[in-house]
Design goal:
5 helices, five-stranded parallel β-sheet, 5 strands, alpha/beta, globular, 204 residues
């Protein structure tokens, strides 16, 4: 099932893109971080209701999203030039030694596995950044999309994992919880999970 939402967002929350009856904006955490996060989102993700980068930006005051690949709008690689910037990506070059200072800013690529790899291939400045690689997720991890790569995970999961590594589990915990709530709400919107207060056995 396609997760692209109508451009006029009819019947949907304009912030979280979920159906208004399932809006989770009132439950969004506000997670303070030392690390600044810059998400480079493929333009084809912009209107997808399953885009978890949107949730990350709503929950993290120091996270912002810029678009990549929009027709007629070349990507401005100068946004990557700030000092102490790392790239969160499995195939990025090895990060500095463990005793090196933590990054002040983390670049996160948001898109399908193929889209993210093409970003790295087409933007040389990305390939020059030190990399942060996370361990692969557990095989039974809940997710909205099936990744084609064993290291694949949603953008919100990856951000939570990176922050757990850089700043500790207490920072990451509310983001993991938000990911679970988002999965539930999307599944409810698709009729694959009962709405709150509904008895699944009604009609038996």
């Amino acid at each position: 099932m396609r997760s692209r939402t109508p451009e006029d967002l009819a019947g949907r929350c304009p912030r979280c893109f979920l159906p208004t009856s399932l809006c989770l904006c009132a439950e969004l955490p506000s997670v303070s971080t030392r690390t600044e996060l810059l998400v480079i989102r493929h333009h084809k993700e912009t209107l997808k209701s399953t885009n978890t980068a949107r949730m990350a930006a709503l929950a993290l005051p120091r996270c912002r999203i810029i678009s990549y690949g929009s027709p007629g709008l070349p990507f401005d690689a100068s946004v990557l030039e700030a000092p102490d910037t790392w790239l969160l990506f499995p195939d990025a070059q090895q990060a500095p030694a463990t005793d090196a200072p933590a990054p002040k800013r983390l670049i996160v690529l948001d898109g399908s596995w193929g889209q993210a790899r093409r970003m790295v291939q087409r933007v040389p400045a990305l390939r020059r950044l030190p990399g942060l690689k996370l361990p692969p997720p557990l095989p039974d991890t809940r997710r909205l999309r099936r990744p084609p790569h064993p290291d694949g995970m949603s953008t919100l999961e990856a951000i939570a994992g990176a922050l757990a590594y850089l700043e500790g589990e207490d920072v990451a915990r509310p983001l993991y919880a938000l990911h679970e709530v988002m999965i539930d709400r999307v599944m409810m919107s698709r009729g694959r999970l009962a709405l709150p207060g509904c008895d699944e056995d009604d009609g038996d």
